[in-house]
Recover the amino acids of this structure.
């Protein structure tokens, strides 16, 4: 009898220990009923108040946009003039000499830089008499600053908003954007669809209203994006909880957050590798906050004194970009070879290429790599409205 009681007691203790370990490894998400109850208890913004908020935000934006177009037009800091035409054939040059240039990459050497790897490996740079060193970026490396200081000849900037920001800063740099790899921003808020099994794709389209009552993990100083969607679409910002987050999707996977800020071309594939196919993304480019990404930028001095060098660089980069779209398999093989800063598989590279293809091609009826003044002006006006850029005349 004693042994039986002792066995039952030990079994109960073991059960409690295992339960505690399981809870630590994977915090349980609130039940759907609990979430609905919590959301129901929140004060609601009337449709009329939401409409007034959105109308006021739009009127303010249009006033700022008109000021930007008149006083700070995009033509001051970007040009398409040196890009090749979309139907241009490819012919190598007879080289009497070779120009050596350094190109600052937007991040560490991973598959993000595939067009430049193609241009290097397939000889497009060499065909136009360029010897190119691809200089890695990464944490703490600002290649706009190294460009301004002369340490690199061309900088590839991950977020195009940094170009007008440095042009119109209190300590400005005279630089010009000359071509874009991604024609739309890959930035999104990424989460999981609880109504879709984790091993299946979700068809859910997120809206700003989906963030009411939710926890969103963002890097420091990104809360202006919440102000943007709250004002533009009339949702109560105080009913969205912002939390600090890094670059991995793990907080969403364990239920510590509902959404995180992410690049649509990167973190979703990390989720898929862990078996979470039911990810959903709110892409800001679809909702009015859009920018170019991985933009090639040069000093104005270079543009004016050696436009032929810039033209040759863009021609080779454009061929690398075309190769990426037309031959993703070969591009993935090259990307794995050149991605020396990360461990990368061909399958991972191919998945990135799939996720980013629509961003490369764009929907603006312009050839790949081309940019529009209207998009730049809208971006700058949004930055002014949400305190990301100071243009005193337009505030």
């Amino acid at each position: 009898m004693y042994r039986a009681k002792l066995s039952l007691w030990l079994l109960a203790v073991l059960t409690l220990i295992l339960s505690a370990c399981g809870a630590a490894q994977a915090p349980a998400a609130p039940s759907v009923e609990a979430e609905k109850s919590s959301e129901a208890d929140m004060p609601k913004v009337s449709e009329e108040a939401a409409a007034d908020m959105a109308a006021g935000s739009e009127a303010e934006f249009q006033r700022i946009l008109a000021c930007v177009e008149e006083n700070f037009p995009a033509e001051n800091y970007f040009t398409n003039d040196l890009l090749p035409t979309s139907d241009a054939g490819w012919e190598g040059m007879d080289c009497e000499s070779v120009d050596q240039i350094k190109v600052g990459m937007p991040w560490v050497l991973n598959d993000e830089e595939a067009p430049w790897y193609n241009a290097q490996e397939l000889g497009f740079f060499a065909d136009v008499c360029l010897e190119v060193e691809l200089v890695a970026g990464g944490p703490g490396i600002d290649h706009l600053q190294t460009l301004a200081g002369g340490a690199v000849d061309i900088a590839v900037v991950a977020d195009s908003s940094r170009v007008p920001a440095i042009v119109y800063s209190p300590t400005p740099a005279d630089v010009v954007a000359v071509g874009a790899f991604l024609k739309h921003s890959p930035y999104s808020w990424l989460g999981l669809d609880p109504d879709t099994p984790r091993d299946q794709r979700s068809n859910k389209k997120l809206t700003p209203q989906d963030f009411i009552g939710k926890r969103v993990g963002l890097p420091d100083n990104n809360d202006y994006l919440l102000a943007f969607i709250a004002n533009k679409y009339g949702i109560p910002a105080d009913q969205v909880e912002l939390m600090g987050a890094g670059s991995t999707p793990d907080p969403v996977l364990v239920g510590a957050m509902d959404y995180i800020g992410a690049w649509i071309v990167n973190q979703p594939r990390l989720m898929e590798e862990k078996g979470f196919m039911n990810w959903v993304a709110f892409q800001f480019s679809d909702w009015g906050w859009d920018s170019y990404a991985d933009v090639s930028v040069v000093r104005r001095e270079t543009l004016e004194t050696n436009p032929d060098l810039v033209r040759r660089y863009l021609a080779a980069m454009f061929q690398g970009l075309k190769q990426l779209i037309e031959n993703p398999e070969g591009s993935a093989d090259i990307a794995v070879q050149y991605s020396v800063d990360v461990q990368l598989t061909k399958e991972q590279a191919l998945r990135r290429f799939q996720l980013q293809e629509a961003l490369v091609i764009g929907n603006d009826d312009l050839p790949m790599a081309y940019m529009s003044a209207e998009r730049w002006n809208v971006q700058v006006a949004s930055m002014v409205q949400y305190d990301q850029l100071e243009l005193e005349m337009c505030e």
Notes: The CA atoms of residues 30 and 255 lie 9 Å apart. Residues 1-40 have pLDDT under 50 and may be disordered.
